Amino acid sequence: MATPIVQRTEVSLAGYPVDAAPVTMALISDVHVAGPDMPPSRFEGIVEQINALAPDYVMIAGDLVSEKRSATHIYTAAEATAPLKGLDGSIIKIAVPGNHDHWFDMEAIRAGLENAGFRVLENEAAQFGPLVVGGIDDDYTGRADLPATLAAMEPLSGGRIILSHSPDPFPDMPANFGLMLAGHTHCGQIRYPWGGAPATMSDHGERYACGRVDENGNSVIVGAGLGTSLLPVRLFSKPEIWVIEVGR
């Protein structure tokens, strides 16, 4: 089981306060806690890795759990979220749901996240220091409401970030709006050595399947996730933690 690789990038946000220092965010997604490849003990080690990166924020773009048929053990929502209690107390913690979270037990997962100090956003927004974060509910299961999220962000001031499980709402963001953070695609999970993947679970195919894309004055960063879905294996798609520095 590979140690997540750390990807880094910097993003300038137009609404970021001129007198505020830059901040760093660690983006993770698709943890998919389940045996054999992602028991809670492995997730605990990843939490320690995140702490060592010393981010100001941790953003979780959904899918903490897995109920895949190939799993050797299905953990409860409390067991899946318990490792997150190990995150440093000074970190600001924000999460949105993913499709597997809804299929599993979103209320129990929300309780576990909140017990670990996370604010869970579902088509709503809040101010966190110099950032305004809008959290979109899961698009894959038809729960996303981008207009409602944008409306909730409107009266708030700061650098604007949208956290979403799927990257598919990205083309609908207003021009020159800000940054989207997402997951869901696993960067294909099983990829061809020459590039591309049999499936990305995105309506846009490879367009937003992996990494950073800049379009229309906006940026989206799509992480490869940490765990697996369907089969407990990755091929030419390593697990990732993204560290993003944002500022003016």
List the helices and strands and how they pair.
Blueprint: E1 5-12, E2 23-28, H1 40-53, E3 57-60, H2 77-81, E4 92-95, H3 99-104, H4 106-115, E5 118-120, E6 124-128, E7 131-136, H5 146-153, E8 159-164, E9 179-182, E10 211-215, E11 218-222, E12 240-247
Parallel strand pairs: 1-12, 2-3, 3-4, 4-5, 7-8, 8-9, 9-11
Antiparallel strand pairs: 2-12, 6-7, 10-11
Summarize this structure as a short list of keywords or feature phrases.
Purple Acid Phosphatase, chain A, domain 2; six-stranded mixed beta sheet; 12 strands; globular; alpha/beta; single chain; 17% helix
Classification by helices and strands: alpha/beta
| H/E series | EEHEHEHHEEEHEEEEE
Low-pLDDT regions = none
What is the level-2 CATH architecture name? 4-Layer Sandwich
Largest sheet: 6 strands, mixed
Total beta strand runs? 12
Give helix % range. Answer: 10-25%
Determine the N-to-C terminus distance: 38 Å
- Could you say how many structural domains there are in total? 1
Q: CATH first level: which class?
A: Alpha Beta
Question: How is the largest sheet built, in terms of strand order?
Answer: 1-12-2-3-4-5
On the 0 to 100 scale, the average pLDDT is 94
The name of the CATH superfamily reads: Metallo-dependent phosphatases
Give the CATH topology.
Purple Acid Phosphatase, chain A, domain 2
Proportion in β-strands: 25-35%
Counting copies of identical and different chains, the oligomeric state is: single chain
Tally of DSSP helical segments: 5
Domain Calcineurin-like phosphoesterase: 26-186
InterPro entries: Calcineurin-like_PHP, Metallo-depent_PP-like, Metallophosphoesterase_sf
Keywords: Hydrolase
Protein name: Phosphohydrolase
